[in-house]
Amino acid sequence: MSEMNNMTAAESAATKAAVMNQVPGPDVEGQSPLHHADFAGLAKRGMQEGGIHLRELALLGHLTLRCDSSNHEQVACVAAILGVSLPLTPLTSAEKGAYSIRWMSPDEWLILVPGLEAFSIESQFRDAMPGHYSLVNSSGGSTVLMLSGDNAVELLKKSTTVDWHLSEFPVGKVVSTLFAKSTATIRRTGDQCFELVIRRSFADYIWLWIQDASLEYGLVIKA
Amino acid sequence: MLHIYCPHCAEYREEEEFHCAGQAHIARPLDPEACSDEEWGEYLFFRKNPRGLHHELWVHAAGCRKFFNLTRDTQSYEIKEVYMIGEQPSVVAGSVQQTTASGAKS
Ligand SMILES: [Zn+2]
Fold it and tell me: Which residues 191-210 of A are in CB contact (within 8 Å) with B?
């Protein structure tokens, strides 16, 4: 593409200045956007059977990568760092172990990693990634909900306009869409199991929405 | 609600995921300093408002956040065609071609 893609190693290394570890030390407790809801307590005290199961995957590392999918060096570099290749087909995802990548747009991917590994992976990108790209740690801006159970699809049907039939929405497919009018990136991880990446500032609203929407099915909180 | 094909996501989504960004194919004058007030005003403020075929710029705001072009009949709301930025419409006013709303131009 442009000459911006031909940064020298020294120029690439200079971009490391933008990276810092966002996770505070062990003396500071990390609190997810749904900390106040006390999922751990609700899991013990609340309903133990129901059609909707909800769990928060709190404090993961969220990395937004933008690069050129036709740049083979960049694509190979991502695979080398994460051990899994960028999903280049629209609306697909890939995962290996604790690392997962979602296609967000033709030049954008959302990578989720364990929270404590985010800084290390960011640093590896700064060291190794060639050419013009952007990697932003957006961990603090969103959180992840796992929605499962026999009525998970019914709840999604109430909340979105997406076709959730398995023939249209197979396991591994990912869409960015509106969930109860707030933005969400939803991935199917099993026949009845879905992962929602939601905005931090909408987390409480979506928590209230899910409680209301699952009244008729029964809501089981998992810690 | 319109059912709109996003050529980047390669599937149909509901209108609520999209925003219309107005008339398509508005070229910015290459040398703004050389424009008369009238030319600059035309570029900046004046838009078509046809009864019939209209070429519009849309963005998949809640999805992939990419822009694309869309040809729509403002009378029937029928979407005639969806095509990428940089491409020219194949359905234009006066053309007899009657494609249905599809991204499958191929
Ligand atoms: Zn799209």
Answer: none
Q: What is the tally of structural domains in chain A?
A: 1
Test the B interface: residue of A177, A181, A198, A202 with most B CBs within 10 Å: A177
CATH of the domain at A55: 3.30.1360.120
The count of residues in chain B is 106
Tell me if the domain spanning B1-26+49-87 has CATH number 3.30.2270.10: yes
- Taking the model in full, what pTM does it have? 0.90
ipTM: 0.90
Which residue range is the domain that position A110 belongs to?
36-221
Domain ranges of chain B: 1-26+49-87
Nearest to A177 by CA among B12, B49, B27: B12
pLDDT digits (tens, 9 = 90+) for A109-155: 999 999 999 999 999 999 999 999 999 999 999 999 999 999 999 99
For an interface test with A, the pick among B5, B14, B17, B67 (most A C-beta atoms closer than 10 Å) comes out as B17
Angstrom distance (rounded) from CA A164 to CA A191: 10
